[in-house]
Write a structure and sequence with these properties.
Length: 128
């Protein structure tokens, strides 16, 4: 058991370093998309939406969807993106979804801000 513990302490840093070196070329070709999902409150202040779904669909990989949810501050981040034209859709229960189209390029970093509007009573009724 002690041998295993000693080996893991010595091998783990080496394995992590190798993984990092191996991923560097891929990191240079890919760009993250970060942003926030919010709505407008009764006093016209932005209210950030935790738990909103963010869906990414890129043209070159139509069959692969990348999804995430916003954190407690309404923020999201999607990384490991190939250079491509992508649509990013934000949605949350009780709100209209919103889609934005972005072009991901090498070494790019994209910041998006979504502002979702509440569904009307008629829209809510149609979804049931």
């Amino acid at each position: 058991m002690k041998l295993l513990s000693t080996l893991s302490h010595k091998l783990l840093p080496l394995l992590l370093a190798l993984a990092l070196v191996h991923s560097l070329p891929a990191m240079r070709r890919e760009g993250p998309i970060r942003g926030s999902v919010a709505t407008v409150g009764p006093d016209d202040a932005r209210v950030y939406l935790p738990g909103a779904q963010v869906l990414l669909r890129c043209e070159k990989s139509v069959d692969k969807l990348n999804t995430t949810v916003t954190d407690e501050n309404g923020r999201f981040s999607i990384s490991v993106l190939p250079a491509d034209k992508c649509s990013v859709t934000a949605s949350a229960e009780g709100f209209r979804s919103q889609t934005k189209v972005v072009i991901v390029t090498e070494n790019s970093s994209i910041e998006l801000s979504f502002q979702l509007k509440l569904l009307t009573i008629a829209e809510r009724r149609d979804r049931i």
